[in-house]
Amino acid sequence: MRIHPFRPFAFALLSVIISVSLASSLSARQGLVERRNQEKIRTAGFADVELDRLHAEIGQTLFDLQALAVPEEGPIKDPTARPTDPREGQVDADTLKQDTIELVPSRRRAFVRGTDSKGRTYFRLRITEGLNYTTEPTPDRFLFKAHAYLYLDEQGKLGEVLLQFYRMRFSGMEYTREIRRIRHPGPFGAGAAQSPIQIEFRSYPTSLPHNELAIDDVPLPVLSGEPQLLTVLHSADDPMPFDKQARIVETYRSLLRKLNRQLSRQRQILELDRNSSIERALDFTGTSF
After folding, report:
1. In degrees rounded to 5, what are phi and psi of residue 195?
2. Exposure of 101 by Cβ count < 10 A (0-12 exposed, 13-18 middle, 19+ buried)?
3. Minimal CA–CA distance to 104: which of 90, 88, 86?
4. Fewer CB atoms inside 10 Å of the end CB: C or N, the chain?
């Protein structure tokens, strides 16, 4: 029996067409399943077990430490007096003439308590401070200060989280200030929605208003004016792409982990200082002096 030379080619072509069709069908099905899962996550408000645990631990540690927080000294009232050392409320004239920037933060101001312009009590924890270098688009240096503002509700539970990254360019022709914030207004609890998380960006050509800076030059939690960017993690009216939402949640998770470790470390430091002070007060033999 003679086989037409075109028949094997036709069979091969038919096999390729069937394979491509099956692959396309499988890809479309996987895409549909992925979109359904994304919608389920959005409907659940990006609820996350680990975030619930971190919120609970941070709230409990904050409640235990609130009595040990250093009182905030308030915003800078005299614009001409720019203290460079956060350990001192008053700086002598020679230090003011130097116009220096302290890069070694004071331990005493690592955890402070204050009242914002709305009359709410906040607790500010220093996460990290230092220098930042960048080569894009041109080499540049920045001084950055990362802090967390935490609020307790009437029941003593965590009421609000504000993570702030303050970056200052102190060399070159432009001395810009940039503030990046992630705010979670709550509520918190088991299965709580994370969709109210807000992303905020502000930029200032020179400096912030003096009444919006603490004595150690850290922006206060309540700022005037509108930010250049303010968006919510998920809004039914204007949802952002899912990959961006996932990145926001992962960034918030990473910062909360670091905040929880830093707060636990601060708890050890403050409790050790308190216990050492008690020991010195009870030492009537003079061995601790």
Report:
1. -60, -25
2. exposed
3. 86
4. N
Question: With contact defined as beta carbons under 8 Å apart, do 132 and 141 qualify?
Answer: yes
Q: What is the DSSP string of the chain?
A: -PPPTHHHHHHHHHHHHHHHHHHHHHHHHHHHHHHHHHHHHHHTTT--HHHHHHHHHHHHHHHHHGGGSEEP--B-S-TT---S-TT-SS--HHHHHHT----S--GGGSEEEEE-TTS-EEEEEEEEEEEEEE-SSS-EEEEEEEEEEEEE-TTSSEEEEEEEEEEEE-SSS---EEEEEEEE----STT---TT-EEEEEEESS---GGGBBTTS-B-SS--S--SEEEES--SSSPPPHHHHHHHHHHHHHHHHHHHHHHHHHHHHHHHHHHHHHHHHH--SSTT-
Q: Which residue has the tokens 């993690």?
A: 233
Q: What is the pLDDT of residues 52-70, one digit of tens each?
A: 999 999 999 999 999 888 8
- What does the alpha-carbon distance between residue 60 and residue 56 come to, in Å, rounded to a whole number? 6
**65: its two tokens:** 């430490």
Give the residue from 119, 148, 115 showing the smallest Cα distance to 218: 148
Q: Which of 239, 248, 66, 266 is nearest to 163 (CA)?
A: 248
Q: What is the pTM of this model?
A: 0.76
The strands making up 140-152's β-sheet, listed across from edge to edge, are 70-71, 111-115, 121-134, 140-152, 158-169, 177-184, 198-204, 229-232
Residue 227, judged by CB atoms within 10 A of its CB (0-12, 13-18, 19+), counts as middle
User: Are the C-beta atoms of 116 and 106 separated by less than 8 Å?
Assistant: no
